[in-house]
Design brief:
Layout (H helix, E strand, L loop, with lengths): L2 H12 L4 H17 L1 H4 L3 E4 L10 H9 L3 E8 L4 E7 L2 H4 E3 L5 E3 L6 E2 L6 E4 L3 E2 L5 E2 L5 H7 L6 E5 L20 E3 L4 E3 L2
Parallel strand pairs: 1-2, 1-7, 7-10, 10-11
Antiparallel strand pairs: 2-3, 3-6, 4-5, 8-9, 11-12
Length: about 190
Amino acid sequence: MDKRVLRGDILGRRSQIPNDDISAHSDMISDRLYDMPEYRDSTFIFSFISFKDEVHTHDIIKNSIAMGKKVGVPITIPKSRIMKISQLRDFDRELHLGFYDILTPKDEYRRIVAPESVDLILVPGVAFDRRGYRIGYGGGYYDTFLAKVDEDVIKIGLCFHMQVIPKVPTESHDIPVDYILTERELIGCK
């Protein structure tokens, strides 16, 4: 099955998850994340800002900032399909709806930082397999971004258990995540 068909199938099934379950499962995933030594030892986290029926990351971002960690969030540049990291200091004050109706830093709060600053990346995806490969949303932003990140940086895919599939079709440029966190388990991919 090709990525486009898989993407449509899984997004359709994910959209059927009741909101209460999305919240409860997101809380379980957050709790698992906070227990990971890789999270506890991190100093600068790069996280996607969840929207719609994704694993909720808003509280992860807010709690990480409250713990004294630095947090970067994406700024996407659609024309060139590039993603940059902007350090976020105040979730409630510094964001507004941007491209694709995803929260993004307001212009006056953009603080671009180098990818080398980051030591942990929370990666979104439509589907993951247990090897760590993913199907994204089709924009290519994370594929391009992850190719520029040092391979020692820990990459954790956040998804619901129903998004873990037997095998993702891969291409030579695909970069797997190190771990996948679901409401049911932590999957080590290396």
